[in-house]
Amino acid sequence: MDMLQHMEWDSVDDDLGELMDEPPYLSESPQSQSTASSISEHEFSCHCCYDILVNPTTLTCGHNFCRHCLALWWESSHKNECPECREKWEGFPKINILLRDATDKLFSEVVQRRRAEIQANPKISRSLLAFQRYGDNLGRSRTNQHKGAGFFFSGVLSALTCVAVMVLVYHWSYGVVEQHDLLISKPVARWTPEEVVSWLEQLGPWAQLYREPFQQENVNGRLLLMLGDEELLKAPYSIENQAHRRAVLAELDRVKALGVKPPQNLWEYKAANAGKSLFLLYALKRSPRLTILYLYLFDYSETFLPFLHTCCPAIAHIDQEVESRFLETQVNPSWRQWAEFLVKYCLLPYQLIAEFAWDWLAVHYWTSRFIIVNAMLLSVLEGCALWRLWTRARIRTLPHKMWNHLWKMLSQGFAFALLWPFVPQFVCNCLFYWALYFSPIINIDLVVQQLMHPETQAL
């Protein structure tokens, strides 16, 4: 009996050896291969598009869909439901990494072809981006719900910030503004002799030499408007220095043209042009290139020329006097200045704003620093936006986005021009100081989100 069992096991071993010695292509018939292939394609197909899964996403019900199919379904239905069984999913669906790797290996050619088709479809790209943003917002909202005391103190901080803005507005509106030079709003013909001397001293340290003659002659606003080159050269003024005389006449021409003294700093400019200052503050942040173009077209001599000469100064000699440099800000820029300005205007518009604020660092110590920091943050955000367009092969949509941005800014500017006369001054001051001092804090949070938690690319 034992001998018979031993013989049977030997025959089985011989049969297994023969099977293992056969070539692998003889071990399975073509019919079985086609059956396995058809079963594989069916198992790895999406239940929406009935094609091979691309970035398969598994829902809580167990069904798998292409991520772009799920995004299109979510965007059209606005429901967190499975497209097949209508069961609601929990949380935010994630890509099934194991299933994705399997489909990439088994059907690499089909998956690559479908990826290229999806990337070339702008509608699908927009749906994927909206779906991912929904997931990011959902994750942040869930995080905020579990912050507890941290979330409470964040709300308290926001409330205190609003109170601080209102206090600052009240302080600057009724305290500091009263200390500004009233000559920016008072007509020249009504200037007193003391105000004329104050205007003269603001031209520079060199103007102190001619303070006494103006005081002795008791020069008021009407007499100041009658002064010319010959009167300043003769006694009692005796301004023999030609550069000094030209500087006084140039500023006097500006005063005659405006009817008042031109603003010399940010606060004076805001007091004289409340609506324009608020418009420029928000416009330079949202669209610096269009805003600078607006200044060039509609405010060339008063705002654009000083801005350009400050950001792109002309090459000055060492022995050049201060009053001569003052005159240069009133002449047309050289071609070197235009070339430097256009390069910065196209590539680094926020750098122009930072350089202009840096020039006023001695006058506006903290305000200039806030503007410089905000300009740096906005440059980073603009660079991140361009990088996303480049990496996602959507740079060709840039002209379309620029046109939409132009239309949006024009419509907002037109609406601002219509609504500005009806908005209370206190509200405008709140908006102004909020954008000036607290906007950098918001931009810091946006930069951290862009650098630490960039939007996940679905393709």
Biggest sheet details:
2 strands, antiparallel
The share of residues in helices is 55-70%
Give me the number of helical elements.
22
**How many discrete domains?**
5
**Strand order, sheet with most strands:** 1-2
Rounded average pLDDT: 76
Structural class: mainly alpha
Quote the beta fraction: under 5%
Which regions are unreliable across 5 or more consecutive residues at pLDDT < 50? 1-38, 145-153, 174-180, 317-324, 455-459
> What value does the Rg take, in angstroms?
36 Å
Overall strand count: 2
Order of helices and strands: HHEEHHHHHHHHHHHHHHHHHHHH
User: What's the N-to-C terminus distance?
Assistant: 68 Å
Name the shape in a single word.
elongated
Protein name: Bifunctional apoptosis regulator
InterPro entries: SAM, SAM/pointed_sf, Znf_RING, Znf_RING/FYVE/PHD, Znf_RING_CS
GO molecular function: ubiquitin protein ligase activity; zinc ion binding
Transmembrane segments: 150-172, 370-390, 410-436
Describe the structure.
There is one protein chain. Helices cover 68% and strands 1% of the residues. The chain contains 22 helices and 2 strands. The N terminus and C terminus are likely disordered. It has 459 residues and is mostly helical. It is elongated. The chain folds into 5 domains: 37 residues; 102 residues, 2-Layer Sandwich (Herpes Virus-1); 31 residues; 77 residues, Transcription Factor, Ets-1 (DNA polymerase, domain 1, Orthogonal Bundle), CATH 1.10.150; 187 residues, no CATH class. The chain has a two-stranded antiparallel sheet.
